[in-house]
Specification:
Length: 196
Amino acid sequence: MSTLSPILVHALVPLPWLQSVPPVSNSPNLSLDACLICNRSTAKAVASHPTRFVGVGMVATECDSATLMESARQAISLGMSGFAVYVGPDVKHPMDEVDFWGPFYDLCVSADLPVWIHPCRDQGFGDYTSQNDGPCRVRGDKGGGSKYSIWNSYGWIYDTSVAMVHLAAGGVLERWKGIKFVTHHGGGMVKEFTDR
């Protein structure tokens, strides 16, 4: 009988993601302010228990590359141990969009900091296009949005897999040698579908 090792260190990953509030995520100034508030709070929690916590920085990924880079440098200055990047159908920049992500990937490699990939599909994103026009895009009730928890149970796994395939097939892993990615939710479906 095997015994599980105790959890020694917990990575504090920022939630909710900026994309959940589009007026904030789409504004360079507001997104930088939101990242600073979140990252300062995370840094404070890490400082209170530095041997138990590491902080993962929130970065602004929905505006332009300059805003992303400013938020990443800010996260580093606050002692973050990596960056959270959220993926899904509402995200503007696929992970292999080199013009947007290139400088960020350069920074990740040179600073030796990993990127935490987490899906951000919300319940309001319908399983079928006809469900995207329901009266309640956020909660998914009264005909709008995803049903039966598909948005989370399958959607998040799919979105993680899509991001991973873009990174591999788009040449990111070849171009940025040594870049590190941490994927949530078991790494998506890639391992089960490798033969396909």
